[in-house]
Amino acid sequence: MVDNKLINIKSLKSPKGVFLLGHLPQFNTYNKHQVLERWVEESGELFKIHFLGKEFIVSANPDFNNKMLRLRPDTFKRFSKIDEVLKEMGIDGVFNAEGSVWKRQRKPIAEALSVKNVKAFYPIILDKTKAILEKFKNYSEKETIVDVQKEFMAFTIDITTEIAFGYKLDTINNKSNSFQKHLEVIFPMINTRVTAPLPIWRYFKSKKDRILDDSLRSIEKVIYEFIDDAKKRIEKNPSLKTKPSNFLEALLVENEAVNFTNEEIYGNVFTMLLAGEDTTSNSLSWAVFYLAQYPEIVNKVREEANIVYKTEKVSSTYEHVELLKYAYAVAQETMRLKPTTPQLYLEPNEDVVINNVAIPKGTSIILQNKVAQTQEDHFSNANSFIPERWLDHGCPMHKNHSPNVMRAFGGGARYCPGMQLAKTEMIVLISALCKHFDFKLEVKPEDIREQFEFTMYPENLKVTFKSLKTTK
Ligand code: HEM
């Protein structure tokens, strides 16, 4: 009886495609996520598409997506193509690991990025925030137009390398910027290769493929410096074996007992760098995109900063960060409207039925999570930037408020382990920037486009910062 009600994925609707090529020509663009959004409008929350005959299911239904995310790691895994592409680049870490390997790798990562550790390493975030404020003050004096995306990437690289690997880089002050340049090459190439219908690069290397190889070699050299450095620290100070002071030391120590392979250690250091850099810097850039358009919101963040940490330059304690509710609301509202990972890619390990839809083992499923975050059913005035909706007392104007559809950090057992670190970085920097500067967009908002390259960022975002002291 129940079987009669089952929906076969073959019967799902499909947006208009092209003969033989299917939906590939439309998807082969800089804004894949927005193409998916348009298709949701055309074909509803659950539909199918195909690229040269290879079928994909797309779901923008938050309940359906949450169920799939929660059924990991046993019933669902990430696209096997992601694993294939990452491994080919030598990246064999927790993001693409599955099953028992994933469980073993996830534990030290989750511990390294726990709230306890974010609190313990707060002085590093503080130092880096002060460094970037100093740099922006300089920009303000020289009236420099700032490419904020690049600046925030330096900020996040420096923090991740110091917190997770105990290695001090000074990318903010351009001391390690070639490393940043090499990292920048990776995500766009993962994006290109994961969605490529054929692995042409295995037979013919384009200029971009050769640049990638060069960047991978340079990154490898730097990562082995992190690893050698940590090994020396452990050798010098054997107490680190029982009490490692960061993620890399924990992996190296576990290596003795649990036997992490060298490839796993290397792959996870690379994964942390990749996962922690663009995602956080993109989100910060989107926050500035909004702040530069709404000076009244900047004023509210500034007022809160003046009340919480008064004459201090930056929120000097983690306890103060917890009081920066309005800066937090700005971060949340930014990630609701501009999630840097608008879609996730999964496939079932076995035949499975979700909400009466029969999904065969190995089906490729794209979870479009952004659509629900900008739907009126879930958030009143859904397309407006209103941080107030995230405050405890809410906003009487906004009767619809469904925080549970927010998937900016994913969901289930594989939700982002760096969430706490990322939120802390965002709150502290948003608050400090608003405390010290007025912002001005140097391009029209409509000329700043959403660019998707595995993560989604504001292309062409150019901003000037006016230091409040220099305005006096
Ligand atoms: C605003 C910033 C960030 C956003 C929006 C973000 C978003 C995400 C998302 C959507 C996932 C996939 C989750 C899933 O499959 O359910 C993820 C996974 C992951 N993130 Fe983040 N992330 C951010 C910052 C960070 C930081 C700072 C780190 C570490 C330094 C980090 C480390 C990771 C790792 C290791 C994974 C893989 C987890 C696994 O597969 O078990 N992320 N992140």
From TrEMBL:
Protein name per UniProt: Cytochrome P450
Keyword list, A-Z: Heme, Iron, Metal-binding, Monooxygenase, Oxidoreductase
Heme recorded as keyword: yes
Organism of derivation: Flavivirga jejuensis
Cofactor: heme
Family: Belongs to the cytochrome P450 family.
Gene3D superfamilies per the UniProt record, alphabetical: Cytochrome P450
